[in-house]
Amino acid sequence: MSIKFSVPTNEFIERYQEKKPLLMKRAVSPDVFSWRDANEIFERCDVSANDLKLSYEGIRPKSEYVESYWDIGTLRHRLIKPAVYDFLRKGATLIANKIANEPAVNQFATKVAEFTGRQVVSSAYAAFGSRDSFRCHWDTRDIFAIQLIGRKRWIVYEPSFEAPLYTQQSKDYEHEYPCPETPCMDFILEPGDIFYLPRGWWHNPLPIGEATFHLALGTFPAYTVDYLDWAIKQMPAFLEARRSLSDWENDQSTLVAVGHHFNSFINDPKHYQHFMDEFVGAIRNQSPLAIELFGNPASTGIPKQAGLRLNVHRTLDLDDGYLIANGTRLNLDGQGVRLIRWISEHPETCLAELITTHPDINSDKLCNLLTELCRQDVLELSHT
Ligand SMILES: [Fe+2]
After folding, report:
1. What is the distance in A from the centroid of ligand 1 to the CA of 139?
2. Alpha-carbon distance values, 231 to 89, 268, 270, 335 (Å)
3. C-alpha of residue 226 to centroid of ligand 1, in Å
4. What would the pLDDT profile of 336-350 be if each residue is shown by its tens digit?
5. Are residues 20 and 144 in the same domain?
6. Backbone phi, psi, residue 297, to 5°
7. Using one digit for the tens of pLDDT, what is the confidence trace for 273-302?
8. Any idea what the CATH number is for the domain that residue 35 is in?
9. Cα separation of 203 and 158, whole Å?
10. Checking DSSP bridges between strand 328-331 and strand 349-350, what pairing results, if any?
11. What spacing in Å lies between the alpha carbon of 87 and ligand 1's midpoint?
């Protein structure tokens, strides 16, 4: 499930991320994914939740294709299969959002998270007709569309409203910021292709009368408004912000004082760092459970050839000698920083390789340290 990105990370961030689309032909091997995998994703998601949707002339009500039943005292929900099949035969699109605990999807998501340094949320789309189920719209997050089965036509237009946030959906803005008339891209996305599309770019992905399944991996960075929102929540510590308001004459000087305070507050690098640490600290990464290694007191540690991967998106903080992974802050000495940096730059490395490339670190110490980092969910074993 590896991805062959057509440009290196630094070039992607400089030239494409949030700037312009990028079509990456044959970036994944489509042979690794089958309809069986696709069916399992839809079957195993919570069919009663809003994250599973059926789109046909709008989003269909759950009652049309999900039933609830009692299973020996437990209320369960299941897809009404004939109804789902009927909708799909008529040209509906079946959608699973916020996919979790699906190793096949998670492996792609991990690669995109490594590539962009951002948290990733995955969705899946299946359709069999030639029906335009979404019409032209913009997304409020950058996406990597990974075409895994069949083909889809993508028509793309430049943004009319730049960098929309999650509250700024195209359906609410299109009367004021209509889609441009001339597309800037019109192409067929084929199995194995990845299309990167920044938020705000109008697009219309069209089924072309054949079976199609694609994943859309959305990336979620911290936005400036998130920082401002966080900063506002810190304002009650400032006396002037706690004062009551009565009339403009009286209150103007209070507001001027608050304005100055807010300005210097958000421009203080300490506060910026505090916010970023909290933002990164709130992210949880999906990593596989390995009870046989880390829950077993008789285990002798990680196997020498097992692949190791850093379970972290943001490694910038290594310059300051720490790392935040799954909510845990980890302070590191010089040797630790060097080791973690090496692992982050060489995903899929293994203990044997680390021993060879770091001869100055005692191999037992290295083994114990890496085992402990795996146990703490900072590193994950990618294969054994
Ligand atoms: Fe979209």
Report:
1. 5
2. 51, 11, 12, 35
3. 23
4. 888 888 898 887 899
5. yes
6. -65, -20
7. 999 999 988 888 878 889 999 999 998 888
8. 2.60.120.650
9. 9
10. unpaired
11. 21
